[in-house]
Amino acid sequence: LTILCILILLVIGTVSCRPSDRKPSQPRSEIQDLVGEFHDMDAAEFERIRRCYEDDDTMELCQRCAKATKFKHAFPMCCSNEDSAQDWCKDYVYYGIQY
Known about the structure:
Blueprint: H1 2-14, H2 30-37, H3 43-54, H4 56-69, H5 74-80, H6 85-95
Keywords: Signal
Protein name: Putative secreted protein
Signal peptide: 1-17
């Protein structure tokens, strides 16, 4: 018990709870956050999936479609509705229709 009390006193003596000296960073927009999250993507690829990150329903549909089809290009194609992929995904995911 004595050792524990000594350790607590040592920790209290070395730890200080005061505000940071750093200046707060400027608030970032959602788009800047998305770009930061996908910094390793090229701009064209980011534009293909951008719609999914702007609409939750589209995001859910495209994620479910990509998971169901196990096709690595399903998510970006669905997000951008390339070749009417989003319409196909909607029919496939929600109604099981394949054409």
